[in-house]
Write a structure and sequence with these properties.
Strand content: 15-25%
Number of helices: 10
Order of helices and strands: EEEHEHHEEHEEHHEHEHHH
Structural class: alpha/beta
Helix content: 40-55%
Largest sheet: 7 strands, mixed
Radius of gyration: 19 Å
């Protein structure tokens, strides 16, 4: 969803951010490594979220090449790690407090996609493995190509999914299905992903861009404040009782009516 009128905000560490009016596009730009992820890439994703202009309503996340993201770069597990970065083996030798702080910093790359003031769409093709799967799960919506292969492979490495993916996965497919997907590390392909709620839309790879563009246009057609309020209402459902949700709906609607009548704060 970019054009010659797009503004390049930054392009570094495997992440490019462009903005065109109300639409921002975040692109993973290392197709030679199937957009494998690293701490530098996570910092760049965090910066992308912080760099969004206030005019942005829709954020599209995509990966260049045949794969969305093949997950964590295995170099992280080597003794040398990445240049200028502590290896994961070094991190494991630190204190619990230090390790917790580092993981929390990594998670920031995955948290901003669900901010109430934007709607995020992951356009996913090919492999979305481990951290790649969790990055797709970080977005509000997922449009997938028919060749998509989701998998949560952390357990096969003796690890757990720790990049914020467990909460949305359980919310989307339920506890039992989420446990089975995570514990087995099996592939979830497009038809199943759409059937169980991981994907909103599944299309041939050649139609992926058009499908994302059409969905984005439909989302932008509604007034921004109404979408923001609706998203906040839906996000709060799991933490509210039925009666509390009714109360939240009334309060949100009162704000919208006052705004429409020119009586807002």
């Amino acid at each position: 969803m970019t054009s010659l009128d797009s503004v390049l905000v930054f392009d570094k560490d495997g992440v490019r951010l462009t903005v065109e009016d109300a639409v921002a596009t975040v692109t993973l730009t290392n197709p030679a490594k199937r957009n494998a992820q690293s701490p530098a890439l996570w910092r760049a994703l965090t910066e992308a979220g912080r760099s969004l202009p206030g005019s942005v309503r829709l954020v599209v996340l995509r990966g260049e090449g045949a794969s969305f993201s093949a997950g964590l770069d295995r170099q992280a597990f080597t003794p040398e790690g990445f240049d200028g970065e502590p290896s994961f083996l070094d991190l494991a030798r630190g204190s619990d407090e230090d390790l917790d702080a580092v993981i929390a910093e990594y998670q920031e790359a995955f948290t901003w996609w669900r901010r109430s003031d934007i709607v995020s769409i992951a356009a996913v093709q090919g492999h979305a493995i481990g951290a790649g799967f969790q990055l797709a799960l970080a977005c509000d919506l997922r449009v997938v190509a028919e060749d998509v292969q989701f998998a949560m492979r952390e357990t096969s490495l003796g690890l757990v999914p720790d990049l914020t993916g467990t909460h949305p996965l359980v919310s989307l497919v339920g506890y039992a299905r989420a446990l089975e997907i995570c514990a087995t590390g099996r592939f979830v392909r497009a038809d199943e992903a759409e059937r169980i709620g991981l994907a909103n839309i599944a299309v041939p790879a050649s139609e992926l861009d058009d499908a994302v563009r059409d969905l984005g246009a439909a989302l932008l057609a509604a007034p921004r404040d109404a979408v923001v309020e609706t998203k906040a209402l839906l996000q709060g459902v799991s933490g509210r009782s039925y009666e509390d949700q009714r109360t939240a709906e009334r309060a949100a609607q009162a704000r919208r009516l006052r705004d429409l009548a020119g009586l807002g704060d």
